[in-house]
Structure formats: structure tokens, C-alpha cells
Automatic annotation (TrEMBL):
Start and end residues of each MATH domain: 40-179, 198-287
Origin organism lineage: Eukaryota, Viridiplantae, Streptophyta, Embryophyta, Tracheophyta
InterPro entries noted in UniProt: MATH/TRAF_dom, TRAF-like
The protein's name: DH200=94 genomic scaffold, scaffold_339
Segments traversing the membrane: none
CDD domains referenced in this protein's UniProt entry, alphabetically: MATH
Length: 287
């Protein structure tokens, strides 16, 4: 096994991205191989006779074997195995292995799916799996122009055929995959710089002496947002009996909306120009 691991470290070198007809295939810059005992959770491809698979492909002049459609993470997929290697993608002398997403007709327009993918090769001697994944552990992005992902150089055929490694034993072998996928929702937010909008609103309070504890102005629009003013003739918010209290409030019903505003409140002096002004700031929905 130690000799196999040394060979593996040599063969799992840098791989480059390449294209195929109908879909772009991005191959990992570095493929990392680890060993684990638990089998693949999503799909296993068992081959009772590897020799028969080669014969079948040769007789039909096919280069690869595709699995049945299977479900993983709520989506339909297929595995594609090249037992002699995918020559078009520099996979000659290797096992080439890919996964592709299916059901294009059921996917919404502009769909995008991010998936973490692990490929498995079963070691029948030690009853464990050699697991291949992107060494960077980055999610693979599937979309309309890229429906397939994998590696043309998954495993050196010399290593695969060596019976002491346990991958091909008595003409039997098994491959597998795990897929953890999540659709890209496009949701998010942007904290933008405030837009300078200068506007005024005048509220005339009629019969001030007969008002109650609090008076509300009509709702008005400023900066494409709805606002109103609250007046406490006898004071509000711990100012009862001390001061007149005046507040600007947002009339937005959406609790998920966010506002930052700088404003000035003014009480007009009806005898002269000595108005009472206070400048303040309003933060709504940020906490």
C-alpha cells in the first residue's frame, strides 16, 4: 500500500480545464485523494465484469459508460466512466470519471447550482474507499453552459489493474459519488452610499390646545419613502412636563427595509424668523 501511495502522489498532478461539445468541463487544478471506510452516500456503480465492459464498449465503438439517472441533493445526475481514459481530454492511461446534471427541461431559466463533489473507488482487499475531491474544497458551479464536471486523470490504469491495490479484483470493481448541491438563489444585499435628496414638508397643527398626548401628521413622501411626524405637546420619551417632543418616523410597513436618514426638524416662530431647529439622524432596520 505504501508503494501505491507513492505512485498516486506522482500521478495526481496538475490538470487543466478543457471543453467538450455541449458542455464545458472544469477539471480540478489539484485532485486530492484520501481514504475512508464509509461508502458513498449518493450513488454506487458496481461492475461485475470489467472485461465485459471493455468488450461492450469496443463492440459498440463507444468510449464511455453512463450510469442510470440518480437523485442527489434534490437534482438528477449521471455518472460517466471512461475505463480506458478520455483521450480527448488528455486522459489516456487513466480512469476518467465525470458527473453531469440532468433534467434541463425542469430547471428554471438562468439556473445555477453549486455542488461539492467526491468520487470514490472501492478497495476490495481493505474494504475501504479511495476518495477524490478538489483539494481546494471549492464548490463546483453548474449552469446552462457547464453541465458536467470531473477529471480525465482520476486513477492511473497501472495502479487500477494492480491486484495488490484491490481496485480491480476478480474482474470486479466499484465506483461512487457524493454530491452536496445547493441552488444559487441570487439573494443578497448591498449597503449603498446615501443619496442626497433635499425636500421639505410643512405640517400645520390646528387647535393645538385641544390635542391629546400625541398628534400624528399625515403620511408624506420624501426621497421615494413614506414618513410622518409625531408631536407630543407635553413631552414624550421621559420628557413629560419638560419639553415639547417632535419625532420623525418611517411609515414603511416592510420590517426588512433599511433606512439611514439625516434630517432637520423645525418649529416655526410665527412672530419673527427665530425658528427652533434641531438636526438629527435616523437609522431604521439596521438592528
Amino acid at each position: 500500500m505504501e508503494n501505491f501511495q507513492k505512485q498516486l502522489s506522482i500521478t495526481m498532478g496538475e490538470e487543466k480545464s478543457c471543453n467538450s461539445i455541449g458542455s464545458a468541463v472544469h477539471e480540478s487544478d489539484v485532485v486530492q485523494a484520501v481514504v475512508r471506510k464509509t461508502p458513498p452516500a449518493d450513488y454506487t456503480l458496481k461492475i461485475d465484469s470489467f472485461a465485459f465492459l471493455l468488450e461492450m464498449l469496443e463492440n459498440t465503438k463507444a468510449k464511455s459508460y453512463s450510469s442510470r439517472i440518480f437523485e442527489a441533493s434534490g437534482y438528477d445526475w449521471k455518472l460517466h466512466l471512461y475505463p480506458r481514459g478520455d483521450e480527448k481530454r488528455n486522459g489516456e492511461g487513466y480512469i476518467s470519471f465525470y458527473v453531469s446534471i440532468q433534467g434541463n427541461a425542469t430547471l428554471p431559466l438562468g439556473w445555477q447550482i453549486n455542488a461539492n463533489i467526491k468520487f470514490f473507488v472501492y478497495d476490495q482487499i481493505r474494504d475501504e474507499y479511495l476518495v477524490f475531491q478538489d483539494a481546494r474544497e471549492e464548490a463546483i458551479r453548474f449552469h446552462e453552459m457547464k453541465k458536467e464536471w470531473g477529471t480525465a486523470q482520476l486513477l492511473d490504469l497501472k495502479i487500477f489493474h494492480d491486484p495488490t491495490n484491490g481496485f480491480l479484483l476478480h474482474d470486479k470493481c466499484a465506483f461512487g459519488v457524493e454530491i452536496l448541491a445547493k441552488r444559487y438563489s441570487g439573494r443578497g444585499e448591498c449597503l449603498s452610499l446615501p443619496v442626497n435628496i433635499f425636500s421639505t414638508y410643512t405640517w400645520k397643527v390646528v387647535k393645538y390646545s385641544k390635542t391629546g398626548n400625541v398628534i400624528y401628521s399625515d403620511v408624506f413622501v420624501m426621497g421615494n419613502l413614506k414618513w410622518y411626524i409625531m408631536l407630543y405637546p407635553n413631552g414624550g420619551q421621559n420628557q413629560e412636563g419638560k419639553n415639547i417632543s417632535l419625532f420623525l418616523a418611517s411609515a414603511i410597513e416592510d420590517t426588512n427595509f433599511r433606512i439611514y436618514a439625516e434630517y432637520k426638524l423645525c418649529i416655526k416662530n410665527q412672530k419673527n424668523d427665530k425658528d427652533l431647529e434641531r438636526t438629527s439622524k435616523l437609522i431604521y432596520g439596521f438592528y
